[in-house]
Specification:
- The complex is a heterotrimer of chains A (211), B (339) and C (100).
- Chain A is mainly α and 211 residues long.
- Chain A has a domain of 80 residues: Up-down Bundle (Four Helix Bundle (Hemerythrin (Met), subunit A)).
- Chain A is 70% helix and 0% strand.
- In chain A, helix 2 runs antiparallel to helix 3.
- The longest helix of chain A has 28 residues.
- The radius of gyration of chain A is 25 Å and the shape is globular.
- The termini of chain A are far apart.
- In chain B, helix 1 packs across helix 10 and helix 1 packs parallel to helix 11.
- Chain B starts with a helix and ends with a helix.
- By secondary structure, chain B is mainly α.
- Helix content of chain B is 68%, strand content 2%.
- Chain B is globular.
- In chain B, strand 1 and strand 2 form a beta hairpin.
- Chain C is an all-alpha fold and 100 residues long.
- Chain C has one domain: Helix Hairpins, CATH 1.10.287.3510.
- Chain C contains three helices and no strands.
- Chain C is elongated.
- Classes of the chains: A mainly alpha (211), B mainly alpha (339), C mainly alpha (100).
- At the A-B interface, helix 2 and helix 3 of A face helix 4 and helix 5 of B.
Chain lengths: 211, 339, 100
Amino acid sequence: MSIFDILFYLFAAAIVLSAAFVSLSRNIVHAAFSLLFTFLGIAGVYVLLSADFIAVSQILIYVGGILVLIVFGVMLTNRVTNIDIRAAIRSRIPAFIICAGLLALLIAFITQAHWIRYDEEPWKKTPWGKNAVEQVTKPLQGSVREVIDQQGSQGTAAEIGKLLMSDYMLPFELLSIVLLVALIGAAMIARQEAVQKKRPLSPSLPTEVSQ
Amino acid sequence: MVIEALIKIAIVLFVVLTGVSYTVLVERWVCAWVQDRIGPNRVGPLGLFQPLADVLKLLLKEDIEPLMAQKWFHWVAPVISIAVAFSVLAIVPFGHVLMLGNHAIPLTIASGINIGVLYIVALTSLGVYGITLAGWSSGSKYSLLGGLRSSAQMISYELTLGLGLLSVIMLSGSLDLNTIINSQAQGLWNVVRAPLGFLLFFVSSFAETNRQPFDLPEAEPELVGGYHTEYSSMKFALFFLAEYANIITASAVMTVLFFGGWHLPFVDQLGLSSLAMTIIGVLAFALKVIGLLFVFIWVRWTVPRFRYDQLMNLGWKVLLPLGILNIILTAFEKIYLIA
Amino acid sequence: MAPLSHYLAVSAILFVIGTAGVLFRRNAIIVFMCVELMLNAVNLTLIAFSQFLGDQTGQILVFFVMTVAAAEAAVGLAIVIALFRNRQTVDIAKVNILKW
């Protein structure tokens, strides 16, 4: 077991524990900060999977953006002090059945399936022929780490940039529109208060008249 | 390899901690000079031992924990602040390669990080947590308001910071800090090639480090002390340390991105040995950082504080459009002037 | 290096934890956080496959998921704040009338 394996299992434990805390914690602020550790743990796993650009994006977008928004939401809806949110749990049994079933299904899939690697010859172990597999998995050039080793320390950023500007140009542009629309929508929803406040709060108060 | 890294960490930590304490002293001197006073000169010759006295005073004070505070979060908030401030320094190249015999030591703690610029932006965005957490966990309305204000401010100015950085990335075509320095060494410094980008980065670093004229999170007349109102003793000292460490980090990053890092023009034509070149490089880096630090202090004692709506207007209505203009201008420059 | 199935197992557990949070909890912000957990689980799977199959496309997809998650966070939290402002509650069981 290499040090990277040990690190992976440590990160995995951190991810699972903190995620469980997020979904079970009674205190919403604790849940939000537990989510911070989940995100950081996932970023760590990304680094171990040699996806450096995605790892930093994870920190930048999830931790630095989304979670800050969530913390904002928590603080603004919690009336300064944190209220204990002991919400009554509804329909406990169906929810439990769904979760247990989902977990069983996923774990069964993961243990049953034969997962191919880029350096395996899957057509020898799987019932279908070579062509079918090649169509599914695209040209196999080696793991991301090997590509990095061949190309020098370019990282995955350059490769992702090239793909975004060529094969995935249209989705990329569409996403920027999605972001713009979301931004305008969010600003619009948040501005509602300003519109409502134009009504005088209490008409009985004498209004200031400029001399 | 590990020992090498540990030695580098120890040196950088020592230099930065000393730097922080003397930045505080210099800040007080400059402040006194701007206000036509004498400034601290009692402790030791010229007041040079003042930082020691300050540290001792902060350490010996009682650590008061407010009744309403969330104990654990209250404790962890300053730690986050300081950790973020220091971890950016891990990738800042403070010199060229040092040759010891045949053994080359890159003068960066973590060399070979090829997404260095993104790492800096990502860690800067983590700085919000320390302050927000401090504000929330203190259980005081002044602290909470300071914390909320600072998060809003830091999120708003992060955009501008990123847009300013983009021009550097576009010009050197890399996210690696060493490549960025090399591209500046071969051509002009980025401050000349991308002045608008520098201006954006410069202004938003003031906002990101919560310095005057953007020090609304701790605006004394309105919020007592902002997010660290309820902090005392060592925990307050950590926030204090983090603020100045942030300034040093910001200066170092600015030096690397816009002022050519350890590069000095025309020195490579003097025909010096590689050791002398390296030493000159480190000294040049230190000088540039000190110069920028002085600018940080100078601005603080010269420019009045912005009002909150002015701050937000400046960020969203002036700097953000300028940032987009900056990208377009840099693209034109890259196509027609450089390539 | 740990086998692919271990990465997938972590991701599956994470996904189920997220699902459990969405189904069990009634605080809108917690539900929101659990949705983020589920998205992260999917991202983890994509990156694991990307590494083990030597194909960068998975990373592009993760990038897209993150962007959509950011848009979702902005709109979702704006809705939560608007909800709290109008109803002083963030309990999703109490906001079932679609208008007020």
